[in-house]
Design brief:
The complex is a heterodimer of chains A (about 300) and B (about 425). Chain A is built from 11 helices and 2 strands; from the N terminus they run H-H-H-H-E-E-H-H-H-H-H-H-H. Chain B has 2 domains: about 240 residues, 3-Layer(aba) Sandwich (Rossmann fold); about 150 residues, 3-Layer(aba) Sandwich (Rossmann fold). Chain B is globular and about 65 Å long. Classes of the chains: A mainly alpha (about 300), B alpha/beta (about 425). Chain B: InterPro entries: Leu-bd (IPR028081), Peripla_BP_I (IPR028082).
Chain lengths: ~300, ~425
Amino acid sequence: MDIQFLLELMINGALTGLMYSLVALGIVLIYKSSGVPNLAQGAMVMIAAYLIWMFAHLMGVPIVFAILLAVVSMFLFGMVTERLLLRKMVGQPTIMVVMLTLGLESLLRGLGPGLLGASPKSLDLGLDMMPIIIGDVFINREYLVGGIIGGLMVAGALLFFRTRIGTKLRAVSDDHISSWSVGISVERAVAISWGLAGISAVAAGAMWGSVQGVDWTLTALLFPAVAVVILGGLDSIYGVFVAGLIVGILGSVIPGFVDPLVGGGTRDVVTSLIILLTIIFRPHGIFGREDIERV
Amino acid sequence: MKPFTRWLASVAGAAALGLGGAAQAEKEPIKFALLQDFTAVYTFVTNEYHQGQRDYLRFVNETGGVEGHMIETIVRDTANEPQRGLEAYNRARREGAVLVDFFSTPVSRAAVNRVLDDEVVMITALHGRGDASEGETFPFIFPMMATYWSQSTVLADYIDQHQGGLEGKRIALVHIDSPFGREPMPILKDLAEKKGFDLRAFAYPSPGTEQSATWSDVRRYRPDHVIIWGAGGGQQVSVREAIRNGIRQENILSVVWLAETDARNVGGNHLKGVKRFEAVGTGTDHAVIQDIMEHVIEPGHGQGSASNVGTTYYNIGVATMAVAVEAARLAMQEFGAPLTGEKLRDGFRMIENFDARGMMPPITITADDHQGGGYGRVSAWNGEAWEPLTDWYSAHQDIVWEEIEKDAAGFREGR
């Protein structure tokens, strides 16, 4: 076996996985507070990337400020989405709420390209395209930065849940009725979690938009992100980090060795198997709580 | 016009083209159905392509139409879904469309039997079935430009003629893992045997946003040349990964789907030297584009942003309609009005050495050959534009036609 090849696949896979974690984090943040698996997170990533592009290229704002403006915009977008759409669904069956997020995904997927043009847009974060080379191992610099940001976002989310607002969110995630009874505004907590998911979408949109350009295909990031949250546990931020690494590494190493033998196409199979096997053998994921309701 | 307004205008349904030529209003219009994917997979190309088509047809109408008949377009969004495409097709047919362009491989493949039964002409430029080049089996389907098979032979031939020959070389085909991505495989395999080079295919999963593992493997193969076979955002990822893995730009060759947008998105000057198959000339320095500028763009009647005029995909759109209008003109001259699908088919088959006044290779369509000769050329990105490196030519059409006939026979036999 070519050890250097294996090493390269593992490193780049781990970094890619952490970039998937950026998408998955938004799903977990919302699920933790409201019990809603947000299937619109991939589309939110796309909208965030379009916003950064719009601020930077159409309005001429420097890229750093464009990202900051997108953070504010997406936080507000998340809160408004919760207020206008999700709050009306209180008391409705979970499946209806899931369908609502699916409808939101479809709407956003058409809206971004419809408003700003469908051809792929360039999002240049100023990162050097050339890889870091160690021996015969090439490490993708963009993935390295994305992976670091993914790790930092997860760490930031963990720290946030230790703050006063974060503690309220944890209480809300534990029990809505008890939280209400002690004076916590559940609606506000859920809205904040949607806002935070919007911020997470900006980080994902910036990094993935830089790697692949900005167009509708960013919404396809939902699939690996769903694998990450199912494997890690729908309500676990630790899980986002660990499962991101596992999904990324397996999704890189297995196709790296198997694709040449079977003619390609195994990465999506690997991702699908991760989802299926986790649901069959450990439905609450590695770090998820066992009382989580299946959806 | 803002993109959203333009988009709405595009998908809003039937749209009459042009108010010009009111004097001939009593003549029955010719209806072309442009039922395309404005909102899903082909969005990287559809807007510019469709804009080129509409601007050209507007130009035709502004200058008297086809033998005095205006051309009306029926425009609907299929979202690349065969069901929606067929529904839109049925409506368009009832409304009198004699030509349909889905510009989507899945939708046009699903519509093959319908258009053959209904005797409606379907153009499939740069998409659809390669074997539809065989006119006897597919009498109403016209690829009318080089199929993917012909594109692969031109690219391989370019390496053979201009990059030190094919013999003993290692050629990597890095492709999206889809039927489109695998399309050139049988042709390149035949060529590898014939020319004595080593061919290895590397697939990456759709939509091609993440290809790092694939390219790690490509690098270890140490290819002399890499042919990339994808579309949309996946293409720029391929180019970036190739460069990142030490493959020199001049050794990267692409299927037709690599355009100005990709150059911008790859960033910097990284695309400089990368080559591609070219089906239609780019830029505004063509007589037909100049006419569109004068009669449509400058008076403010353009379908979209004027900055798109002359881009790769815009010009391809123009070329498709130039060929279709030429076919309609020949059919009307020969058979008179009203134009039917059958007459239009015969009009296509009368096209001889038509090159849209120098913008595209001269194509000749016959009852047997609906591809038009399989011509194209190789161009390279010079940092600002696509620069032709060769004249228009075709290569190894014997191998291409073996494949066409084999697959067409399969269709006839229901395989």
